[in-house]
């Protein structure tokens, strides 16, 4: 059974801080690792990672995958209050996505 | 706007009542999914449909049934609601079972009392 574990469960930082969110996975038929941001409603897609060691970047957010050690990290630099959300990672093993439990990030002014 | 549409957005049921959650997508996606999200649990897959005419169980299918009515629509039915089914339900679709991220509906918040 596929397993995705995220850490920490929750995090409180102040604006301007840099945060690193972790995602480890155990899957039998790995295709890709995805990151989502969830505010009040549905998750919105951030990144999809398929190749090890290649960083994906979008503004202040970046993510990288290590297929040998089976983990991914999501970095957010110069955090803003608008970054407050639940961040979900999921592995795509073919038929479906298996999600981790999420990291709840709160950014204080 | 193109996307995944879920109805209703909110629902309160009494234990033992039945209801159907509706989901429709207009992106010509092949695969559709139903997830539930409980606090601290991430999203857990209930059922999915890889293509029109097929459905398969996910991680937590007990107490639910689904129908892939056509390529656009995928409904989730609770035949006899239980308090343990209180959750937020998300429908999602994807073009194919490949490398692309899901498109999610806006969710249905269901409370069973």
Structural class of chain B: mainly beta
Helix content of chain B: under 10%
Rough outline of chain B: globular
Q: Percent of residues of chain A in beta strands?
A: over 45%
Our measurement of the CA-to-CA distance between the termini of chain A, rounded to an integer number of angstroms, reads 41 Å
* Tally of individual helices of chain B: 0
How can the largest sheet of chain B be summarized? 7 strands, mixed
Please write the string of helix (H) and strand (E) elements of chain B: EEEEEEEEEEE
Question: What is the arithmetic mean of pLDDT of chain A?
Answer: 91
Please mark out the parts of chain B with pLDDT under 50 across 5 or more consecutive residues, or reply none: none
DSSP summary: helix tally of chain A? 0
Instruction: Give the C-alpha Rg of chain B.
Output: 13 Å
Q: Enumerate the spans of chain A where pLDDT stays under 50 for 5 or more consecutive residues.
A: none
Q: Which band does the percent of strand residues of chain B land in? A: over 45%
Mean pLDDT across all amino acids of chain B: 91
* Radius of gyration of chain A over all CA atoms, rounded: 13 Å
Structural class of chain A: mainly beta
Global morphology of chain A: globular
Greatest contact between two chains: A-B, 26 and 25 residues
Short description:
Chain A is an all-beta fold and 109 residues long.
Description:
Chain A has 109 residues and is an all-beta fold. Chain A is built from no helices and 11 strands. Chain A has strands at residues 3-7, 10-14, 19-26, 32-38, 44-49, 56-58, 61-66, 71-76, 85-92, 97-99, 103-108. In chain A, strands 2, 4, 5, 9, 10 and 11 form a 6-stranded mixed β-sheet that branches. In chain A, strands 1-3-8-7-6 form a 5-stranded antiparallel β-sheet, with no helix packed on it. In chain A, strand 4 (32-38) and strand 5 form a beta hairpin. The mean pLDDT of chain A is 91. In chain B, strands 2, 4, 5, 6, 9, 10 and 11 form a 7-stranded mixed β-sheet that branches. In chain B, strands 1-3-8-7 form a 4-stranded antiparallel β-sheet, with no helix packed on it. In chain B, a hairpin with an 8-residue loop joins strand 9 (87-94) and strand 10 (103-104). Chain B is built from no helices and 11 strands.
